[in-house]
């Protein structure tokens, strides 16, 4: 049975927002806005399909930006996806969504559309753009009416951690199909997520209780436990147990970097993970992705290098978030700063 391989494909930097925690604009707010030409997009698409053919994987695309709908060839790209029968998710803003656009996205094969909520109204609009909190909630129904699953994603930091339970209530009331959160990855001069390890564990505990209450009440929102530290939490609570049949040296879960995921930027640059600032491994315009995967990507698959995780019994299932760890000093294999587990040397 073939496994999926996901490509997070940024087709443009063009965006209606300048979010305070956005990695695209964090290093240089006056940066040139890059975007691929139609010719480059086709080359990139077939480079990705070539990779999947070589490694017997099924392609899955997360089309994003910036806001991908602002690319002049956005609809042509979706047509190319449909022509080749490739499923995809769109990660974008709510501002250009309407019934007609959502209907067209569905016709082209869009399965999910992901929006962001990074706090309640005052906090979210401070992070992103005045008025975007209300329009984001409004567009959940617009997406769902078209038959596309509406996903809400939250980036957790010390600024908004206390608001996460209220965000959960809000997305449940508005009928989001999926909710998940991930931690802020430090960029530029800010090198700290602003969350102590035990405070983050308390957040997981509070969210777990709330998720279960909603599930018991028949809530249709799927609460995706995206952060790999959920594995540690559920290991401690007994909900996750190490399988008796697990083989030594095998990787069964945790971070997909180096396993089944790559990011492609509008410049063509290939990143092992977009949230890892120094993880460029090639360029789709000059490199065959299939070659990059067995050469430059090897450095992200040496699991013995994890300074803390390599000593932990959960190495094959967790490994926290290397992107958050590398945000502090550029070390992909450093200890996750929010991991509360004590590991003996």
From TrEMBL:
Checking CDD domains in the record gives: Radical_SAM
**Source domain of life:** Bacteria
**What are the entry keywords?**
4Fe-4S, Iron, Iron-sulfur, Metal-binding, S-adenosyl-L-methionine
Q: Which cofactor does it need?
A: [4Fe-4S] cluster
N-terminal signal peptide: none
Recorded hits in Gene3D superfamilies, A to Z, give: Aldolase class I
Q: Which residues form the Radical SAM core domain?
A: 1-213
InterPro entries recorded for this chain? 4Fe4S-binding_SPASM_dom (IPR023885), Aldolase_TIM (IPR013785), Elp3/MiaA/NifB-like_rSAM (IPR006638), PqqE-like (IPR017200), Radical_SAM_PqqE_MftC-like (IPR050377), rSAM (IPR007197), rSAM_ACGX (IPR027583), rSAM_sf (IPR058240)
| Keyword S-adenosyl-L-methionine applies | yes
Q: Which molecular function GO terms apply here?
A: 4 iron, 4 sulfur cluster binding; catalytic activity; metal ion binding
- Name of this protein: Radical SAM core domain-containing protein
Specify the species. Answer: Sellimonas catena
């Amino acid at each position: 049975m073939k496994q999926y391989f996901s490509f997070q494909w940024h087709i443009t930097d063009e965006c209606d927002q300048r979010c305070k925690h956005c990695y695209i604009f964090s290093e240089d707010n006056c940066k040139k806005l890059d975007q691929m030409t139609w010719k480059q997009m086709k080359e990139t698409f077939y480079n990705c399909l070539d990779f999947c053919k070589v490694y017997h994987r099924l392609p899955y695309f997360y089309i994003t930006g910036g806001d991908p709908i602002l690319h002049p060839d956005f609809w042509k790209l979706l047509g190319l996806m449909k022509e080749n029968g490739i499923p995809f998710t769109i990660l974008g803003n709510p501002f250009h969504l309407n019934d007609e656009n959502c209907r067209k996205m569905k016709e082209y094969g869009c399965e999910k559309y992901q929006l962001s909520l990074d706090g309640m109204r005052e906090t979210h609009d401070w992070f992103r753009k005045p008025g975007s909190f209300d329009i984001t909630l409004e567009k959940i129904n617009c997406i769902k009416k078209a038959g596309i699953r509406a996903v809400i994603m939250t980036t957790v930091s010390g600024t908004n951690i206390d608001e996460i339970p209220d965000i959960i209530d809000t997305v449940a009331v508005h009928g989001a199909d999926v909710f998940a959160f991930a931690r802020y990855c430090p960029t530029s001069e800010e090198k700290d997520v602003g969350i102590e390890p035990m405070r983050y564990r308390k957040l997981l505990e509070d969210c777990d209780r709330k998720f279960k209450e909603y599930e018991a009440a028949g809530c249709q929102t799927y609460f995706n436990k995206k952060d790999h530290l959920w594995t540690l939490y559920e290991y401690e609570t007994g909900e996750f147990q190490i399988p008796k049949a697990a083989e030594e040296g095998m990787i069964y879960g945790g971070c997909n970097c180096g396993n089944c995921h790559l990011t492609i930027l509008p410049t063509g640059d290939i990143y092992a993970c977009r949230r890892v600032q120094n993880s460029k491994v090639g360029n789709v315009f000059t490199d065959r992705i299939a070659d990059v995967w067995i050469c430059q990507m090897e450095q992200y698959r040496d699991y013995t290098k994890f300074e803390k995780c390599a000593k932990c019994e959960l190495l094959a299932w967790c490994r926290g978030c290397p992107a958050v760890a590398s945000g502090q000093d550029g070390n992909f294999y450093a200890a996750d700063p929010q991991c509360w587990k004590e590991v003996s040397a």
